[in-house]
Amino acid sequence: MTGFPKKARLLTKADYSKVFNKSVKVSDAFFLILIHINSKENSKLGLIVSKKVDKRAVQRNRIKRLVRESFRNHSFQTACDFVVMARGKISEQKNAEIFNSLENLWIKAESRIQQIRKQ
Length: 119
Hints:
Blueprint lengths: L12 H9 L2 E4 L3 E7 L6 E5 L8 H17 L6 E7 L8 H24 L1
Helix pairs in contact: 2-3
């Protein structure tokens, strides 16, 4: 397993604000992903997993690890900033179900990005 370098993360409040203000959304029962096309060469990821999702930090951190790993394994054609927000009772789901959900969302996100670029 490789690390998650700073160049692949959204770090500042300004980075998150850009995504929240001008974003395209894709979602399912477990996640909401906000997408903002950037002009840089690589995609960046920001995570939001609140205590409403699960009170235990262990479970919230597990979700974050799974999202980061899924993000690393998916290659994006267009550089974008992504903010992934966990929803509902995701902490009760198995890792395989979470990975499947994320893989489907990354595919939806790619198609949504391509639609925007064509306009």
